[in-house]
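Researcher: Re-running this chain for the archive, since the previous output was lost when a drive failed. Same request as before.
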Amino acid sequence: MDIVSLEVAIDLKRKEMYASAEGRELYSPDVVRVSQELDVLLNLYNRFNY
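Model: Regenerated structure tokens:
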């Protein structure tokens, strides 16, 4: 995965997280799952840059 694809994936996952959090508690299992998936993408992104 190149950096541009990773940035797109992060943006999409972030939007998914916001959508899943709408109307739910932030500790809802669905919100936490998507947040953890976003964390993985962000960690990969950080490896590219540092």
